[in-house]
Amino acid sequence: MGIQGLLPVLKSITDKVHIGKYAGKRVAVDAYCWLHKGAYCCSKELCENRSPDKCITFCMQRMELLRRHGVVPVLVFDGGRLPSKGDEEDSRARHRKENLDRARAHELAGNTAAAYESYQKAVDISPEVAAHFVQALKAAGVELIVAPYEADAQMARLALSGSVDAVLTEDSDLLPYGCPVVLFKMDKAGNCEEICLKNMALNRDLSLVGFTPQMFLEMCILAGCDFLKAIPGIGIRKAHAQMQKLKSFDRVCKSLRFSGHSVPKGYEQAFQHALWVFHHQTVYCPKAQACEPLRPLPPGGLLATAQVPMQAALGQAEVPANAAAFLGAVLPPEMARNIAEGNLNPHTLEPFSKTPQNVLQPLALNGSAAAGSLVGAKVQGTASRRGGLKKLLPVQANGIASYFGNTARCSSGSALRQFAAPRRTASGSMPEVDDSAAMPVDTRSRDHAGSASTSAAAQLPAPPRPALRADNSRPGHASAPSTSGYHAQADTATVQGPQLCRFQVTASSCSSSDSAHRHF
Fold first, then answer.
1. Cα dist. 449→409, 442, 459 in Å?
2. What distance in Å separates the CA atoms of residue 440 and residue 458, rounded to the nearest whole number?
3. How many other β-carbons are positioned within 10 Å of the β-carbon of residue 415?
4. pTM of the model as a whole
5. Which residue among 248, 314, 405, 519 sits deepest, i.e. has the most Cβ atoms within 10 Å of its Cβ?
């Protein structure tokens, strides 16, 4: 869900960049964001527990897009269910169930469009679907981490420790986590939006001058997040105004109660829990190969940092001291490592069943040489039901399939010159054509059709040519003026970020001025 309304008020410090800006750098990617996007093309299949091949193909295309631009992707997956997010997960599950029932009802009524829309809202990315993506990434040699709990906290750990240079996601949660550079909304061309935490003071819509990282975090929680719903009537702008004036959430809660807002009972304690989750959630450390807090726990324990009286017990710690259960239980090192490597189901803590071979075969890509090779391809699982794999189209340098790559190109003028229309003789009769010189039947592919017709036309007897006039023209033929045509030639400019192309006009031979206009 992210922080409600945060990204729109940060537009002034949001830069349009291309993923190529991070060539040679490591970028952590929220894998579930790609999986949810890819699920739109096969939502019904996923709701019916059928093959996720289309979804995995979409995700692998996005991964290869990063590789093609020199970016080193690190895919991060969500893990087990975080206790602090239990209410939010239950609410999402109810909405999915309602939409699934609605989709089936629409389908029975013959309302295909409404059923398709409801299926998209009902789809759930299960650990089994994610496991297909994990296996494809392993076959392609891509680095990945399955978080013990939330992927957002795991990516924040990678960013704060310097293991990655940026984070690519669709959620705004990474900003209150404290990630220095966050990339949002990458499209299929590699264009995305960049927000740098160091530029927060330059924001114009909501002034953040004088805000500390703690104040910014508390403002985001007040506006509503995955761990705590917002107070009714409080959005990002009111939360900003209150924090700018009062500096801390406990004072804000007192002020809101005094002004007549309906602040739920125990809201301050729940707010403190959310703060602790953002600061100290359990994550996986690749170097130590064990679970540990996102940030070190304070020496005096969690209660030493509480800003409000904590009447409720924090919960029984399962492992080292001061680690409350709502932060996520610290798993044994061997189990945490197997989850991080994608060998265990993070929900059941059991090994995954064997991934179907039809998923691994078409997606086992290695290196940038395979960039774009998935474009136009069909995965075996779905294509075999339609009579086999479709022929792969040739791929251009930019990774886009060239639908005209094998077609012989020629101008309309040259095509006309290859056609010889029969002319009448002086007696008015048509010249006879020898049967032996007739055009042979061409059973070859269309790629050679032009050359076959040209050679056959050359075998026809030449008709009599009328005499030339004094101006060197023939009767019935208007002399066409000589014209130089123009065509656009791409000249790639070296820039930082996306590669831009400017077009320069160069002269080339063309049969007529009309043809020149058609080319330009």
1. 12, 8, 16
2. 12
3. 13
4. 0.67
5. 314
Position of tokens 């070859």? Answer: 444
* Structural domains of the chain, with CATH: 7-340 (3.40.50.1010), 372-403 (no CATH)
Determine the Cα–Cα distance for residues 213 and 197; give it in Å rounded to an integer.
9
How many residues are present in the chain? 520
Closest CA to 203 of 188, 226, 219: 219
